[in-house]
Amino acid sequence: MRAVRTTPLLVLAALLAGGCAHAPKGAPRAGAPADWFPLAVGNEWVYADRSPQLPPRGQKRTVRILSKDADGYYVDNEKGALRADPDCLHDRLRRLLCAPFEPGHAWSSVVSVGSTERYEIVAVGERVQTPAGAFDGCLRVRAHTRAGPEAEAVLEITYAPRVGPVRIETFAVVRGVATPQIRAELESYRVEGR
Known about the structure:
It is a single chain. Helices cover 2% and strands 53% of the residues. By secondary structure, the protein is mainly β. The chain has one domain. The protein has a twelve-stranded antiparallel sheet with strand order 6-5-4-3-2-1-12-11-10-9-8-7. β9 (133-148) and β10 (151-160) form a beta hairpin.
C-alpha cells in the first residue's frame, strides 16, 4: 500500500523515532495559514510517538526551522520546506492547509502523474489534549490518497492556532476499515513568530 507522502515537518513519518511553552488557552480562531503554522527561523516542535502499530513507543522527534530560502520556503532539520501564502500553507508539491478555515472546505493537490491527494477541513474549534497541554480552537484537516482499488491512505493533522500541528495521525483504510498507523502528539514547542 502506498502511504500518504508529506513533508517531514508535518508527518514525521519515520516517526518517531527545546524550549517548552505553555499551551495558549482560549486562543482566538486564526485567519491566515501562518496563524495555524507559525513559520520562523528557530521555531521548534518536539513530538512524542503514540503510534499503536510501531514499536518501540516513547521515541521523540524534534523539528526545527533552520533557514528561509530564496523562494520564501522555511527549511527544517529534516529537509522539509514550507511556505505560508495568503490563502494556503504548502510544501513544494502540495497545498496542505487552505482558507477559508471552515468545516467542509476542500481542495486537492496533484503530487505526481498518478497521484492526487484530496484534503478537507473536517473540524474547527476542537479542544485537543497533548503532552504539551490543552489547546483550544483547533482545526483538523484530513487528506486521502488512493493506494489501490479498495485501499487508501489517510492523514489527519490537527493544528492549534499560533502553535502549529499538535497531533498527526495516519490510517490505512482497506475495504472501508481504518487501521491506525502513526500517531504523533506535541510534547513541547518554541514558537517565536511568523
